[in-house]
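Z., the sequence and structure:
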Amino acid sequence: MEVQLLIISGAVLAGLWLVLYIFPINLWITAVFSGVQVNLLDLVFMRFRKVPPPLIVNSLILATKAGIQNINSQLLETHYLAGGNLTKVIKALIVADKANLQMTFKQATAIDLAGRDVLEAVQISVTPYMIIVPSITGVTVDGIQLIAEARVTVRTNIQQLVGGAGEETIKARVGQGIISCMGESPTYKLVLEQPEAISKRVLAGGLDAGTAYEILSIDIADINIGKNIGAKLQIDQAAADLEIANAKAEERRAMAVAEAQEMMAEIQKARAAVIEAEAEIPAALSFAYRTGQLLTKPKGRIAQ
């Protein structure tokens, strides 16, 4: 008998737990007393759609208590099923509302589903964030290399957060602007004397266009003098000119040597012709002697 009572008690408790699990009455009562309008059947159907009712109800309560309007359980459930982070979305909306930032639930969910941390984005919009730009190397007109370190203070642009360029784009644009300003400066002394001129000029270039940030200020933290690139280039140019001159001199020397060799060949050719002519003299004398021409008196002379 006692065993049967235990079995029945266990079955009753299990059934009661199952009923309370499927019908989260306690959660529904909490929502009602918190001023949140939610249907008990909707909470039941959430179980079958694999949506945690406590998350939806607690998010609704948090948004309602913070004064966030136009949010219902269907919107929250849809965002959860889409893979969004409801907790961060609700907290981001609360922070934006307290900071008087124009941000709707649709914008917050779009930012969240785009893969960005919506809560962090709103916090950066409220509290500006500093981007540290890596060392930037530029060369002035007089050939002096300058190495600058910049700090960029930004805040999030909520309206362009979806589809806007990120932090790396800001770094690249600021670096490009600083290098351009250095390259146009006639002397490195001017840059060292007025670093704020570079900051103002770069800031006026609209570098935050198309990005997810709004640039508040650009500050040159430090400027160091590097190498004398102009002198190095002149030395390299002089060395190159010397190499060219040596090459041309070697070419002229080789041509002179070749001409000398040609003259020597002509001399040897002339000597060969002389030797050949000298070799013909005995033969000519012999032929003249045989023909009697060697003893013939010259015409016009009287014999003694």
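The chain has twelve helices and three strands. Residues 164 and 210 are 6 Å apart (CA to CA).

Let me know what you think.
H.
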